[in-house]
């Protein structure tokens, strides 16, 4: 399913929800975590504006990451960023602002925990570029 995209982005209240289990084939975990199909698919979904879908597959990475590790913080921050962008699509700007603050703190914490080293194969600068560029493609 590499490179596969759903036919629409799910936005609660605006578009239909995807079929249960549709994303299960993309939730694979590998060692190292950044080689996981779930990580790669999440980056592609996020970059293409499929924010609910990115969250859906990244959750598998979050669950597999070490509870106190930098990887878990980064993934949690990206999940919250995806949630914030989804809230913006739902015309809920206050919720988006709250989630963006949480996401920023989590992402910063990831790089504190890593001592500034790359996390999930990404430097802090690369993550900032991902978040700044609405048209990023992984």
Task: Give a verbal description of the structure.
This is DUF309 domain-containing protein. Pfam families: DUF309. It comes from Thetidibacter halocola. The protein is built from 5 helices and no strands. It is globular, with a radius of gyration of 14 Å. The mean pLDDT is 93. The protein is 54% helix and 0% strand. Helix 2 packs antiparallel against helix 3. It has 138 residues and is mainly alpha-helical. The protein has a single domain, classed as TTHA0068-like (Hyaluronidase domain-like).
Mean pLDDT: 93
Strand content: under 5%
Morphology call: globular
Q: Oligomer, anyone?
A: single chain
Low-pLDDT runs = none
The helix count comes to 5
| Helix percentage range | 40-55%
Helix/strand-derived class?
A: mainly alpha
**Top CATH class:** Mainly Alpha
Q: Quick one: biggest sheet?
A: none
CATH topology: Hyaluronidase domain-like
Write down the domain tally. 1
Please identify, by name, the CATH architecture: Orthogonal Bundle
- Fourth-tier CATH superfamily name: TTHA0068-like
What radius of gyration results from the CA coordinates?
14 Å
Q: Roughly how many Å apart are the termini?
A: 15 Å
In total, how many beta strands? Answer: 0
What string gives the helices and strands in order?
A: HHHHH
Short structural summary:
This protein has helices spanning 37-47, 51-64, 70-89, 93-113, 124-132.
């Amino acid at each position: 399913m590499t490179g596969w995209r759903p036919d629409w982005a799910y936005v609660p209240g605006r578009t239909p929800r995807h079929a249960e289990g549709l994303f299960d084939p993309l939730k694979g975990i590998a060692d190292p975590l950044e080689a996981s199909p779930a990580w790669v698919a999440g980056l592609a979904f996020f970059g293409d504006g499929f924010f609910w879908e990115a969250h859906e597959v990244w959750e598998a990475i979050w669950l597999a990451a070490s509870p106190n590790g930098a990887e878990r913080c980064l993934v949690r921050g990206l999940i919250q960023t995806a949630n914030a962008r989804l809230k913006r699509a739902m015309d809920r700007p206050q919720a988006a602002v709250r989630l963006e603050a949480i996401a920023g703190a989590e992402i910063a914490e990831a790089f504190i925990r890593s001592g500034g080293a790359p996390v999930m194969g990404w430097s802090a600068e690369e993550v900032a570029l991902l978040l700044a560029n609405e048209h990023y493609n992984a």
